[in-house]
Structure formats: structure tokens, C-alpha cells
Design brief:
heterodimer, A: mainly beta, 6-stranded mixed β-sheet, about 55% strand, B: about 110 residues, mainly beta, about 0% helix
């Protein structure tokens, strides 16, 4: 069955450093991959989308890579700030409009 | 600004009650989704709808039903609420294809 894995442990990063979150998947060939941010008690908010034929995407301090051979995406936040503390979800999209979400990684940026 | 709204942020119900959770989107999106989110289990898809009066089962439809009488509104119904349905319920919509899911703020339902 399809499986998405994100770091189950919380990630603690010092302010100003780069935070890197990992999303691995198996038994799936996604057409695209998305990253969402979720704050406590709120719905997820879309951040970035990367297609299967793209290697890297950037948006301000965010960078996403997508390696379909390794079946892995990396999500980077450079010059991290305490306001970046949240749970980050990766999601895989197929060609059928359905999206499968990972369980998320909690990120803490320490001042 | 796009918006997905849900009828309640917090809801407390008794076991056996019929529960309605409503979701409205103002983006004229075709696709709407209902998820539940539990610690350690992530987001799980309950039902989704591609069009008015159409519905498809997601991964965990048991104990739930849905209704989509109008394009902008998608309702989740718990016919007889049980304690294991205590959860955060999230509604989302998309325009289809390579599109982002726009989520509502969520309804935290507690069944006593």
C-alpha cells in the first residue's frame, strides 16, 4: 500500500540556521508533491508545489527538492525564525485529484 | 481572498446523537473533501465530492455520510456519534488538477 513517511520526532533548530525536513514515500508515483504548514488548532496552509519533472522549487526562504528516483522530497527553510515553528505536512498528488498526506513533522525554531 | 468556512470551531455531542458538520467555500471549486486528523495518525480522508450530488468514499467512510446539494456546500453527517469519532474535522476544496487544497479552520468535535 502507499506510504508516506515524515520525521515523527520533533525537529529543534537554532534561529538563523537552515531547517531541513524530509518526506519519503513508497509504492506510489506521484504527479506532484506539495508542502503545507499547519499551526496548532488550524487547518493546513499550502506553501509549495513541485511537479514530478521538476528537481527544485524556491519561494522566498523556502526551497523544495524532489527526487523521484530516491522517492524523496526535502523541504528547507533558510535563515529560520521562531515564527517558522509549526507542523509541516508533505502531500502527494496523483492524476485523480486525490492527495495523500504525511503525518507531519513538528518544527521548533529556538531563539 | 479565498475562503473555506466551517460551521463550528468546537462542538460537544453525546453518544448516539446525529451530528452535522457544514463546510462552505466561495471559490466555485468542483472538488470538496472531508478529513479527520488525529495525533499520530495524520490526515485521513473520509469522503470527497467531485460535483453536486456526487460523492466518493475515502479511506475511512464507516460511520459517516455526506451531502452535496449545492456546489459551494459539503456536509458531513455522523448518523449516530460515538466516542471514537472525537477528532479534529477538516474540510478542504480544490479546483481540480495540479491544485492546492484550501482548508477550513477545522471543527474540534468531542463525543461524550
Amino acid at each position: 500500500s502507499q506510504k508516506i513517511e515524515q520525521n515523527s520526532e520533533a525537529l529543534n533548530i537554532q534561529e538563523g540556521k537552515t531547517a531541513t525536513l524530509t518526506c519519503n514515500y513508497t509504492n506510489y508515483s506521484p504527479a506532484y508533491l506539495q508542502w503545507y504548514r499547519q499551526d496548532p488548532g488550524r487547518g493546513p496552509v499550502f506553501l509549495l508545489l513541485i511537479r514530478e519533472n521538476e528537481k527544485e522549487k524556491r519561494k522566498e526562504r523556502l526551497k523544495v527538492t524532489f527526487d523521484t528516483t530516491l522517492k524523496q522530497s526535502l523541504f528547507h527553510i533558510t535563515a529560520s525564525q521562531p515564527a517558522d515553528s509549526a507542523t509541516y505536512l508533505c502531500a502527494l498528488g496523483g492524476r485523480d485529484d486525490k492527495i495523500i498526506f504525511g503525518k507531519g513533522t513538528r518544527l521548533h525554531i529556538l531563539p | 481572498d479565498v475562503k473555506v468556512t466551517q460551521s463550528s470551531r468546537y462542538l460537544v455531542k453525546r453518544t448516539g446523537e446525529k451530528v452535522f458538520l457544514e463546510c462552505v467555500q466561495d471559490m466555485d471549486h468542483e472538488n470538496m473533501f472531508w478529513y479527520r486528523q488525529d495525533p499520530g495518525l495524520g490526515l485521513r480522508l473520509i469522503y470527497f465530492s467531485y460535483d453536486v450530488k456526487m460523492k466518493e468514499k475515502g479511506d475511512i467512510p464507516e460511520g459517516y455520510s455526506v451531502s452535496r446539494e449545492k456546489k459551494e456546500r459539503f456536509s458531513l453527517i455522523l448518523e449516530s456519534a460515538s466516542t471514537n469519532q472525537t477528532s479534529m474535522y477538516l474540510c478542504a476544496s480544490t479546483g481540480g488538477g495540479l491544485d492546492t487544497q484550501y482548508f477550513g479552520p477545522g471543527t474540534r468535535l468531542t463525543v461524550l
